[in-house]
Write a structure and sequence with these properties.
Largest sheet: 5 strands, antiparallel
CATH topology of the largest domain: Killer Toxin P4, Chain A
CATH class of the largest domain: Alpha Beta
Number of domains: 2
Distance between the termini: 10 Å
CATH architecture of the largest domain: 2-Layer Sandwich
Radius of gyration: 18 Å
Strand order of the largest sheet: 7-10-1-9-8
Helix content: 25-40%
Structural class: alpha+beta
Number of strands: 10
Bound molecules: 2-acetamido-2-deoxy-beta-D-glucopyranose
Strand content: 15-25%
Number of helices: 5
Order of helices and strands: HEEHEEHEEEHEEHE
CATH superfamily of the largest domain: Gnk2 domain, C-X8-C-X2-C motif
């Protein structure tokens, strides 16, 4: 269930590049991290696609005209209702957000045999379902059996002992801090003591969920990302 996992993107990067505008794909090309096409039945494919398009247009318009980084939209006409949501990381401009959203729309174009899909990027996610419950609880699973997604890098830190120690503490602080922020978003960095490396982290919960749901996600993220150590990179969503 890539789906449930969308709750949070937690990225830790050990790089010298600024974390706020780039990712390990460095050039912001909006390469998808994970794509999920659901299996809930569609009654009329043309009508489903029409509803889906309508939510896409609505989401895009909200991002652009209201200058927001999170939007929801629904289209209920003639059955095959579509409930959609998109969110960008807080460090993006509106233009960058729209670019990521558009990449998401393209990525899901062929998900037409079921009503429900999601795509995750470092910079944003886009999700739609034939139910609205996921707005308040991203973990709800009324579609395929979606499970949290963890992606570990494949390069080990050069000083694993101190790296593990610093990153474990960093992730622990992040897990406690993120649900307490007003926008459920933290971006931070920390030096590896005695070394010349810096670790960068970003954490974000979906807008408008409650603090407890954000905390649940962060707790899972902390556990799962610890398993990535001493890899220099990890993502949980
Ligand atoms: C939905 O949008 C796509 C891409 O913009 C377009 O090709 C297609 O014709 C639209 N479908 C409907 C039913 O509006
Ligand atoms: C969608 O399907 C078309 C036709 O098979 C294919 O060319 C295209 O690459 C697919 N797009 C994605 C994002 O998978
Ligand atoms: C610091 O970086 C230099 C060059 O990358 C490397 O040779 C050196 O071993 C590093 N020092 C430590 C303590 O990791």
């Amino acid at each position: 269930m890539l789906m449930a996992v969308l709750v949070v993107l937690l990225v830790l990067l050990l790089t010298k590049a600024g974390f706020s505008q780039s990712n390990d794909r460095d050039d912001n090309k909006n390469v998808p991290i994970a794509v999920f096409c659901g299996t809930n039945a569609v009654i009329s494919v043309p009508n489903f696609i029409k509803n889906r398009n309508s939510t896409y247009n609505d989401l895009r318009m909200q991002i652009l005209s209201q200058r927001v980084l999170y939007a929801r939209a629904q289209a209920l006409s003639a059955g095959d209702s579509v409930f959609a949501a998109a969110q960008c990381r807080n460090y993006l401009s509106v233009d960058q957000c729209v670019a990521c959203f558009d990449a998401g729309v393209s990525e899901l174009v062929n998900c037409t045999s079921g009503n429900g899909a999601s795509v995750s990027f470092d910079n944003c996610f886009l999700r739609y379902e034939d139910f609205a419950d996921f707005y308040n609880n991203p973990y709800v699973s009324e579609d395929a059996n979606i499970t949290p997604n963890v992606l570990c890098g494949d390069q080990s830190a050069s000083q694993p002992t101190v790296f593990n120690q610093v990153v474990d503490g960093f992730l622990s602080d992040l897990k406690d801090a993120t649900p307490k922020t007003s926008n459920f978003f933290v971006a931070s960095k920390r030096q590896i003591a005695g070394g010349n490396a810096t670790v960068y982290v970003t954490a974000q919960c979906i807008a408008n969920i409650n603090q407890a749901t954000c905390q649940t996600c962060m707790d899972r993220a902390y556990d799962k990302l610890n398993d990535c150590l001493p890899n220099r990179e990890g993502r949980f969503f």
